[in-house]
Amino acid sequence: MSKPLILVVEDDKAVRSLITTTLDTQNYRFRSASTGADAVLEAVSHNPDILLLDLGLPDMDGIEIIRKVRTWSNMPIIVVSARSEDTDKIDALDAGADDYLTKPFSVEELLARLRATVRRLNSVQNVLPVQNAVFQNGELKIDYAAGCAYLKNEELHLTPIEYKLLSVLAKNVGKVLTHRYITKEIWGTSWDNDVASLRVFMGTLRKKIEPSPDSVQYIQTHVGVGYRMLKI
């Protein structure tokens, strides 16, 4: 795809200027908004490819914007927020965000996450259906061609990152995958924040596929190393 259109939603003028100037120097197309109402209007009117979203807006919480956007669009949403608690990240990811970048952030990390997101968009657009592209492990099923996952024949409502994470584990079932390997596969980078985000995503994914919080049926943690999908 050509350079994507990015909607920047940020009420802090200095931060918004930093982001838009960075995008401009990299020849990204962009639009910007400083309120939640304007963000929703921009998203509906211009159908951006990627949303960069601050959570602390003056008129609306960013979580509400994520939920609104998810009613009509699957565009990647990258949260850029000063909220650094795991609960804040979990709330955003559960609402439908794809990535979470904590302020203060480096320009290099922002651009790396954008490049990884663009690669994911390109891979989705270029993927061709493959016959027999179905993974089955116990009561867990992944239909790669359709991009859907099921548990007990019920479709799982996964965010794009959760689906990608589940697919990476499934394609390496029985193998221990390191944090570095997984973050490279998911985001294309190995920043320290990626490992923290990985733990959050893994937590939300487990809530959706494991029978109970204390039960390990599909995904096993190897402390300090990584994760493994168990073969059932």
Automatic annotation (TrEMBL):
Residues 5-118 form the Response regulatory domain. The keyword Magnesium does not apply. The modification 4-aspartylphosphate is found at D54. Keywords: Cytoplasm, DNA-binding, Phosphoprotein, Transcription, Transcription regulation, Two-component regulatory system. Pfam families: Response_reg (PF00072), Trans_reg_C (PF00486). One of its GO terms (cellular component) is cytosol. InterPro entries: CheY-like_superfamily, OmpR/PhoB-type_DNA-bd, Sig_transdc_resp-reg_receiver, WalR-like, WH-like_DNA-bd_sf. Residues 132-231 form the OmpR/PhoB-type domain. Its main location: cytoplasm. Coiled coil: none annotated. The keyword Cytoplasm applies. Transmembrane segments: none annotated. GO terms for biological process: positive regulation of DNA-templated transcription. Gene3D superfamilies: 3.40.50.2300, 6.10.250.690, Winged helix-like DNA-binding domain superfamily/Winged helix DNA-binding domain (1.10.10.10). GO terms for molecular function: cis-regulatory region sequence-specific DNA binding; identical protein binding; phosphorelay response regulator activity. Residues 132-231 bind DNA. It is found in: Cytoplasm. May play the central regulatory role in sporulation. It may be an element of the effector pathway responsible for the activation of sporulation genes in response to nutritional stress. Spo0A may act in concert with spo0H (a sigma factor) to control the expression of some genes that are critical to the sporulation process. This is Stage 0 sporulation protein A homolog. It comes from Faecalicatena orotica.
